Each structure stands twice: as C-alpha cells, then as structure tokens.
Amino acid sequence: MNIKRICGFKKVRREMDYQYTNPVIPGFHPDPSICRAGEDYYLVNSSFEYFPGVPIHHSKNMVDWKLAGYCLTEESQLRLERCRPSGGIFAPTIRYHRGEFFMTTTNAVLAEGKWNFIVYTSDITKGWSQPIRIGQPGIDPSLMFDDDGSVYFTSASNDTHGIPCIVQCTVDAHTGKLLSESRIISYGSGEKNVEGPHLYKIYGRYYLLLAEGGTEHGHMETIFRSDFPYGPFEPCPHNPVLSHRDDMRGDIYCTGHGDLIEDQNGRWWMVCLGTRPCVGINGKRLMIHHLGRETFLAPVVWTEDQWPVIGDHGTIDLHMKGELPTPPSGVNWGFEDHFEGPFHIRYNYLRNPKYENYTIDTERRKLVLKGTGVTISDLDSATWIGIRQMGFAITASVKVQLTGREPGTRVGLTVFYNLDYHYDIFLEKENEGLKAGITKRIHGIEVKNCVWEIPEDASVTLKVCSDRSVYRFFLCQKDGEEIELGDGPAAGICTEGTMTKTYTGAYIALFAEYGTGEFQDFLIREEPVISIKSHLNN
C-alpha cells in the first residue's frame, strides 16, 4: 500500500511531530464527533440518562480539551423522566457551517420511541435552539453540508426485512423539513450492527464512514466512497480502516465510531471511541471496562489512490505522535470544589433534576442536598450530583454532615455506574443513632453494612481510593484516624457485566435520600495514564 503524507491535492506546511497521550478525553465520553471553526475545535459526546445533555469540549489542538458547556441544558430540550439506564441521548454529530453550529442526535427515552432532532446556535456560550424533530427514522444521525447548498441527513436504520442499513435524505437544517425521500445508501461491509454513519465530501468525492461489528471487541470503522451522495459506494480495499479486534493484549479495545476532521494546516485526523480494560483482584487482565468508552485521537494519512490510513495501519496507542496544530500542554482532569460559587460546569444529574433540592451556601462554603423518597436505585430523579470518573487511580473525598434527623436519612459519596450497579459510603440515621457504612449493589442485589457509630453532630470525611482493580472506602474522623470500611471490585460495575446491555461509565457523585445532608471540600485527584503492562508489573 503506497501511502503519502497527504493526498497531494493540496500543499500543506510541514509541522513538527508532537507526542500526545490517549485518551484525549478520558472516562465516559463515547461516540465522539468533531468540527472546526477556524482554529477552534469542538467535540461532542453521548450523555444517555444524564443531564445536561451532550457535553461539548473546546480545544486548539485536539489534544488539550476543556469542557465548554452542553448542547441540551433545558428540560424543554431534553426530557429524561424515568429514563432507563443507557436510554436518553446518544451518538451526536456536530458540524459548523457558515458561522453556525449544528448538533443532531437521538433521544431514546420518550414514550413514542426513538426520534432524531437538530439544535443549532451561532454562539455556544449563549445556548442552543429548541429541538427540531427530523422525520427520518433510525439512530446515530449525521449532517453533511454540500457545496451546492444541499444538507444530507444520514442515520442508521433497518430495511423492510429488519436488516440494518444506512438511510439518507436531504433536509432543511433550520426547520427539520424533509426535502427528499429517505433512501437506503449502504449495508456496510456485512459486519453486524452497521451504524454511526458520517458522510464527507473530500477532494471532490463522497466518503461514507461507518461503525460496524457492534461497540464491543469486534468494533471497527469501515469507509466507502462514491462520485454521488447516494452512491453506489465502493468499499475501501483495506477495510476495516480502524479496529483492535485482532489486538487483544494491548491497552486499548473496542475502537470505532469515528469522525474525520481536517485541521487548518491540511492535516487529517480521526477521533474515535475505545475502552481500556480493568484488572481483577487477582492481578490478571480482564477483558471488561468500567470507566466507559473514551475519546481517542489518531493521525490520518492518505494513500496514492485516495483512501485513509488511520493511526498505525488501523490501530492506535496510548502514546502517539502527530503534526498537531499547536504543541500539547497537558490537561489535569482532577477536580476541586469548595462551594464558593455557582455549580461547577462538570456536574451532571441523574435525569432531569429537581433544582430545589440542590443549594450552595456560599457563606458557609457548603453544598446542601435535600433528599426525597426517591433513592439512587430508583428509576426517577434522585438527589444526586456527580462528575465522570476520568482515571483508574483516583482519590476522592468530601466532608459530610447529616442534618436531617428522620430515621432512614442517608447521605454520602457513591461510585455510580447505574441504578443497579453502585458502591456507596454514607452516613445514615437509624433509630439507635448515627452510623457510617457502605453499600454494594450489583445486579440489583444490595448488601449494606453499617459498621461504625458516629456522634449525632459529627462532621466526618468520606473517602474512596481506587486503582485498576478495586475501590476502597474510608471514614476519616477529626482526630485524623482513618478507618477502612470495606472495598468493592472494579469488575462489579463493568459494562459487560450488567443485566441488560448498557453503555455508560463510572461517576463519582454526592447524594442524599429521605433527608438533608451538607457537604464541604469535594476533591478528586486523578493519577496519570499508565499502560496495563506497567500496572501488572507493579
């Protein structure tokens, strides 16, 4: 295969190769889609049952990303009432066209079933439009703005026989009006679960990028091209262009669901999802993950016959080199909140929150959470606020005081995957007094162990420490004494072990049930990315 640095259709300036670290956005950040506005890059991810919906990150070099906000911040834009785990919002696409941003995605929570919509804005800091529903069925919608003004809307659906396929029509991106009938344009390469379509016009041809094989260990990206937007599409002779299905002993698995981008210097890149495996308590590698599907970046070069080559001939690594627009400076994904101002941008809620249950007392530098009869194991809006876990090795701590005196009041810190899978360390009011303990909930089966008596007016620090294999829970008292209350294996909250197929990742969150709690000094320290071989050798 004769590979050129760039196709040769445009002269580009030779930049310096910079080394960078994958994932570029760690933790639960699946289904990445990217666009460029001048020298600024914007990336969106799926958000499922969490609110606000569709986080959007900004970068100058595609490596150093900072959370800029969310596309769906109002309940009128995103209804998540009684959303099942891994329902809600998934597989967004973001595009920039003539001074406007457009984001399209699928809402899979409403009673009428899955539906696709578009929101748009000229300034992401000032919010997005109300959702504009699109009549084409399917999931994983995408937009392509052609040179002649046509806007192609592409999604993954099924034909009349129930066979997965890719369908496409033209739309008015501001009104949602379909301007043509939906047509089947591809069945992919024949692998299962053809989805995640993106249509591009590159060097005068139409390229169709697809995710196939399912978002598990057989995941892959394939690409096709045509002289016409509806095909017929010819397959790339070296499909799949990205997959780790034949590389099962490395650091990265399940790569796929990619999106291509050309930088301001004419270089090409792909963002994609992938997973990193956890480790069993016996120290052995496990082919499962709990941080979620993460966002990775790979350089792209083109062959003489105009086909893309992703990364190292279709694979990527934790440490890669590429001619980035600017040198990387590194991102600290740690977290610190002393509750001195408004709610931090990284906070998410479970489904649509009841904001009256969340108060920041800036004078006392405390977060006050008012719990209700809805628990974090219920299919409703519990009093729960958290951030995505971004690394395997973390230390999270928060000072907690239970102010509600009703028996059953429970407040604390949770390692949360979904309502059926979470580990909690908490204070709980019982008839005989106040106790600290832990709860482990796996497969919906809950085991609670209250092991330590606490003075009624005590303020204690709850702490969780993790590595690649286990979470450990500690109670820290004023005298400095630190008591380990228990532990839970990372494997217990892994995606692959859930009762029904789910697609999210671990959160570190604060919660209250049946009464009120106060929280101070919420801190999370994230350790650097290390290879699984380094972990196993330690």
Q: What key attributes describe this structure?
A:
single chain; 538 residues; mainly beta; Tachylectin-2, Chain A; Jelly Rolls; 2 domains; 1 helix; globular
Give the mean pLDDT.
Answer: 93
| Unreliable residue runs | 4-14
Helix content, binned percent: under 10%
CATH superfamily of the largest domain: Glycosyl hydrolase domain, family 43
- Second-tier CATH architecture of the largest domain: 5 Propeller
**Euclidean distance between termini CA atoms:** 40 Å
Describe this structure in words.
It contains one helix and 40 strands. With 538 residues, the protein is an all-beta fold. It folds into two domains: 3-322, Glycosyl hydrolase domain, family 43 (Tachylectin-2, Chain A); 335-537, Sandwich (Jelly Rolls). The chain has an eight-stranded antiparallel β-sheet with strand order 5-27-30-39-32-33-34-35, with no helix packed on it. Strands 26, 28, 29, 31, 36, 37, 38 and 40 form an eight-stranded antiparallel β-sheet that branches. Strands 1, 21, 22, 23 and 24 form a five-stranded antiparallel β-sheet that branches. Strand 36 and strand 37 form a beta hairpin. The chain is globular and about 75 Å long. Residues 4-14 have low confidence and may be disordered.
Question: Which SSEs are present, and which pair or pack?
Answer:
Elements: E1 3-4, E2 18-21, E3 33-37, E4 40-44, E5 50-51, E6 53-59, E7 66-72, E8 89-97, E9 100-107, E10 115-121, E11 132-134, E12 139-145, E13 151-158, E14 164-170, E15 183-186, E16 195-202, E17 205-212, E18 220-226, E19 234-235, E20 242-243, E21 253-262, E22 268-275, E23 294-303, E24 308-310, E25 319-322, E26 335-337, E27 348-350, E28 358-361, E29 366-370, E30 383-388, E31 394-402, E32 410-418, E33 421-430, E34 433-442, E35 445-454, E36 460-466, E37 470-476, E38 482-489, E39 507-513, E40 516-526, H1 532-537
Antiparallel strand pairs: 1-23, 2-25, 3-4, 4-6, 5-27, 6-7, 8-9, 9-10, 10-11, 12-13, 13-14, 14-15, 16-17, 17-18, 18-19, 18-20, 21-22, 22-23, 23-24, 26-40, 27-30, 28-29, 29-40, 30-39, 31-36, 31-40, 32-33, 32-39, 33-34, 34-35, 36-37, 37-38
